[in-house]
Design goal:
This protein has two domains: about 325 residues, TIM Barrel; about 110 residues, Immunoglobulin-like (Sandwich), CATH 2.60.40.1180. It contains eleven helices and 22 strands. Strand 1, helix 2 and strand 2 form a beta-alpha-beta unit. The longest helix has 16 residues. It starts with 17 loop residues before the first helix and ends in a 6-residue tail after the last strand.
């Protein structure tokens, strides 16, 4: 495991919604959990089983860097008790109840004023055939409660689109979903890291550096990111952190590199909040054989808990340097670039040179007020990348793992990026020297 990450103490797009932004700031990341306030919402997907739900379990999620959790309940009363527990530990819940589909108005009125409620969880990965019915439920709920968005997570990866999406073209699926369900945010899942050997026994561990990426991942991110920008809707994307088998794809027990890669790329493409699939481990049975998520089925922690906790701490520490930034464009470097993407051809005016000899990167340029932000992500989940970058201005800041912003000219022009890692640089129009400040702080 990369030791550097442990030197620092991821449809959900909470940060841009007024209700979510205020919720996140009110809850904060300090206090009991010790995680610094960052403004980056991170959701744990997959419920804590009924027999395990407690304040201690929500505190455990908080200590791993989660701000929001998906949670089921059988009744309104049970959900209210879960919300009370979560609120006591600074966690917001995406509430999923069967009554949201059968008597939505009464269910919503009973819970809508609870301070720990974040969204109404309606459906996961619906096909286009369900859009009309789900859209009616969404509209009935939002007519009663416009302050808590309805959450519908969309499928973003399908080898059989007619079967799973209901339509042949993903752009059509996405466009119809937003229109027919009146969605207030775009949440979509795509799990890119797979093992070359899809026949190995459990546990699915990459012992030989044989993790590869699905070739169409970046192309799908281009579609989702474009849809978010064009619609003005916030975007929330996933990382897969549970080992399992799905058809021909074998998803490994994650490493730091796997999770860094997925979440930094998600952020580079404009995700305003992050999700993890899954928090609790689902059943380890056919056909998926889920195993080794953060919390095992018996309630014990796996090593993945510590990995996710470390990655989330790094993300929270660095988030103030780019939260609220809008993606201007994402380009790629390397001998070959992913299908559906474009090659980096023009550099920002303040960047003199950017090259990744022997490797490939996703390069995101963001704008936030009078700042420009450059995020360079090593696209490999297993191989270190060299980054050669130099700047025309002395005011460029480099954001370190712990959130400290240091003048980039204190470093040479060559950086070594661990697999999946991102270098983050930023500059203000005033081009002031901000050495030694925390990410997001005003330089003094």
């Amino acid at each position: 495991m990369d030791n550097a990450i442990f030197a620092v103490a991821a449809v959900f797009a909470f940060a841009v919604f007024g209700t979510f932004a205020s919720d996140v700031r009110a809850v904060g990341f300090g206090g009991k959990s010790g995680v610094p306030e960052s403004g980056l919402p991170i959701l744990g997907w997959w419920i804590i089983p009924e027999r395990f739900v407690s304040r201690e379990r929500f505190r455990e999620a908080r200590e791993a860097g989660f701000t929001h959790m998906m949670q089921d309940a059988k009744t309104v009363g049970q959900m209210r008790s879960y919300l009370d527990m979560a609120h006591a530990e600074g966690i917001m819940l995406s509430a999923r109840l069967p009554q949201l589909h059968t008597e939505p108005e009464n269910t919503v009125r009973a819970l809508m004023n609870h301070p720990a409620l974040s969204t109404w969880h309606i459906e996961d990965e619906p096909s286009a055939h369900k859009f009309t019915k789900l859209g009616e439920i969404v509209r009935r709920i939002q007519a009663v409660d416009s302050g808590h968005p309805c959450y519908v997570n969309l499928l973003a990866d399908s080898s059989d689109p007619i079967r799973w999406l209901g339509v042949a073209d993903y752009r059509v699926y996405l466009g119809r979903a937003l229109k027919e369900m009146s969605l207030p945010l775009i949440s979509a899942d795509f799990y890119p890291c797979i093992l070359e050997n899809n026949k190995m026994p459990q546990p699915f561990v990459d012992k030989d550096g044989k993790t590869v990426l699905k070739k169409h991942w970046f192309g799908q991110l281009e579609i989702l990111s474009s849809a978010a920008r064009n619609s003005g809707l916030p975007l929330s994307l996933f990382a897969c952190n549970v080992a399992h088998l799905n058809g021909k794809y074998l998803y490994p027990v994650p490493t730091v590199a796997h999770l860094r890669l997925q979440q930094y790329v998600n952020l580079a493409y404009g995700a305003e909040s992050l999700q993890y699939f899954t928090y609790w481990t689902p059943g380890n049975v056919k056909p998926h054989y889920f195993h080794e998520s953060l919390i095992r089925q018996n309630g014990t922690r796996s090593g993945v808990y510590d990995i996710v906790r470390a990655v989330n701490r790094e993300l929270h520490a660095r988030a103030p340097s780019f939260i609220g930034g809008k993606v201007a464009e994402v380009c790629h470097t390397g001998a070959e670039i992913p299908s559906g993407t474009k090659r980096l051809a023009v550099l920002p005016a303040w960047v003199e040179k950017l090259d990744t000899p022997g490797g490939g990167a996703a390069v995101s340029r963001m704008e936030r007020g009078d700042e420009e932000i450059l995020m360079v992500v090593n696209r490999s989940p297993v191989v270190e990348m060299m980054l050669e970058v130099s700047f025309r201005d002395k005011g460029v800041l480099r954001i370190l793992d712990d959130g400290v912003a240091v003048c980039a000219d204190r470093y040479g022009p060559v950086y070594r990026l661990a697999p999946g890692y991102a270098e983050i640089f930023k500059i203000g129009k005033a081009k002031s020297d901000g050495c030694g400040t925390r990410a997001g702080e005003v330089a003094k």
